[in-house]
Amino acid sequence: MRNGFRSERASAIKSRIAALIVLTMIGATANAQSTTERFDALWSRARLYTGDADSFIKSVQLSGRFQVDQAYVDSGDEEHSETNLRRMRLGVKVAFLEHFLLHAEAEYDPQDGEPVYQRLTDTYVAWSPNDAVEITVGKHGAPFTMDGMTSSKNLITIDRSNLANNIWFTEEYVPGVSVAGEIAKFSYNAGIFSSGDIDRGFGDSNGGEFFLGTVGYDFASRFGAEKAQLNVNYVDNDPDPNNGFTRPLEQVVSVNFDFAKDRFGLRTDISTAHGYLGQSDLTAVMVMPYWNLRNSNQLVWRYTYVDSDEPNGVRFGRYERELESGRGDDYREVYFGVNHYWYGHKLKLQSGLQYVDMDDRAGDGGAFSGWSWTTGFRISW
Question: Where do the domains of the chain lie, and which CATH numbers do they carry?
C-alpha cells in the first residue's frame, strides 16, 4: 500500500513539474521581447538586504537553481523516458565586514527524495581582498577538467561530458581549504580537500586527502579574442578505501582550453588518470565547438572519447545507465544541441540529441549503442 502511494505521489509530482516547465516556457516566450532591465528588476528581488558603508552585514542575497529534464533513451532493444528534477538548490549569500562572504546552500529533491533534503552543497566562508587572492574554507567546488570547472548553471550542453563523469570528482562540493586568484594574464587555484566518506553534511574525514592545483594563462590578446584560456589541472589523491568524495583515481592530469571570438567558441579537454582499488587507468578527449546565433540561440556540437586500459573501467553517463548498468572500456559520444537564452544562463532552454557507443571487452554487460534526446529547462539566481 505504501509503495503504491509513493508511486502515485511520484507520478503526480512529475506531472506538476512537466506542467511547470510548459507554463514557464510560455510565460518566458511571451516576454521574449522584454528588456534586460525587466529581467534585472525581477532577479534583483533575490537581494533581501543591502547595507551601507558602516554596516557589519553588507548584503544578503538568495542563491539557487532549478533544473528539470525530459529525457528519452533508445538502444534498439530497450527504451526509457522520464521527467526528472535534476537539481533544486536553495541558499543564501551574506557579504560582511570587508571582502568576506558566507555562502550556505543545500540540495533538495521533492520528486523522489526521502527525505527531501539531500545534502549541503556550497557551504563556506571566503575572503577576497583583491583579484589576486581569494581564500575559501568549507565545503566548496573542487574544479578540474573543462566541464568540472564549469558550474551546472553555465553548462552549454544538457550534462557534463562523460570525460568529466569518469575523471572529475562528480560529488563536486568537497570540504577543504583553497586559494585562487588572477595576476595579469595568469590564474591559479590550489587546495587541500578531504576524500573521506560522504554524508548529508560536511562528510567524515576518515579517508585520505587530495591536493588540487591549477595554473592558467589567457592568450586572448594574441588571438584578438574575448577568451583563450589554457589551463593545466593536477590532482594527487591518497588511495584510501574510505574515500567517498572522490573517484578511485590516484593522480589526474587535465589540459583544457576555452576559446571564444565573436560568435564562435571552442572548448577542448585532454585528460588522463591513474586508478586504484581495481579502477583502470583512463585516457579521455573532449572537443566542443559552438556557435552563437542571432535571437539568443546557440548551436553546440561535442565529441567525447574515453578509454580504459583494462576492461570495465568506463562508466556510462546519466541516462544511458538507465538501460545499461554495467561498464565498458571504450566510449564514444557525439552530441548536437540547441540552446535558447532568455536571460543568459539564468533563464534558458536546452535540447540535445546524443549518440553513444560503448565497447565491452569483458562481455559482461557493458556494451551499448543507442540514441538519446533530452530537453532541459534551467533557471538560476
Answer: 2-380 (2.40.160.10)
Q: Residue 132: CB partners within 8 Å, gap ≥ 6? A: 181, 182, 183
Q: Could you tell me the pLDDT band of residue 34, with boundaries at 50, 70 and 90? A: low
The count of other CB atoms within 10 Å of the CB of residue 249 is 24
Q: Is 330 helix (H, G, I), strand (E, B) or coil?
A: strand
Give pLDDT tens digits for 178-193. 999 999 999 999 999 9
**Residue with the three cell numbers 545507465:** 321
Amino acid at 60: V
Buried b (16+ CB within 10 A) or exposed e, 139-159: bbbbbbbbbbbbebbebbbbb
Q: Could you report how far apart the first and last alpha carbons of the chain are, in Å?
A: 40
pLDDT of residue 318: 87
Burial class (CB in 10 A: 0-12, 13-18, 19+), 238: middle
Say what the pTM is.
Answer: 0.88
- Under 8 Å between Cβ of 194 and 177: no
CA distance 22 to 24: 6
In this structure, what C-alpha cell is assigned to residue 347?
533563464
CB 310 within 8 A of CB 280: yes
DSSP H or E stretch at residue 10:
helix 2-30
d(CA 142, CA 155): 16
Question: Which residue(s) pair with 177 in the sheet?
Answer: 137, 192
pLDDT at 6: 40
How confident is the model at residue 2, as a pLDDT?
34
Q: Which residues pair with 186 in a beta bridge?
A: 183, 217
Burial group, residue 87, by CB count within 10 angstroms (0-12, 13-18, 19+) = buried
The one-character DSSP state at 204 is B
SS3 call for 26: helix
The label of the residue with cell 525581477 reads: 42
